[in-house]
Design brief:
By secondary structure, this protein is mainly alpha-helical. It is built from two helices and no strands.
Length: 64
């Protein structure tokens, strides 16, 4: 599976080219700034949150 961010950046670039707001040689920075405005992270499922488990750190005394 391709990286979601890179896929979004490529899609944004093609949309900008189609609208005429991006021309070859403008640089990737312009595209990234536009893509940043519309990108939403995926992967969070409603009702299922990751619970972080704390690991107890072993003290040096218990090693010897």
């Amino acid at each position: 599976m391709a990286n979601a961010w890179l896929t979004h950046v490529k899609k944004t670039m093609s949309e900008m080219k189609h609208r005429g707001t991006y021309k070859k040689g403008d640089g990737l920075r312009k595209v990234i700034m536009e893509a940043k405005k519309t990108y939403k992270k995926h992967g969070h499922v409603e009702g299922k949150s990751k619970q972080h488990t704390r690991r107890r750190r072993r003290s040096r005394r218990s090693l010897f």
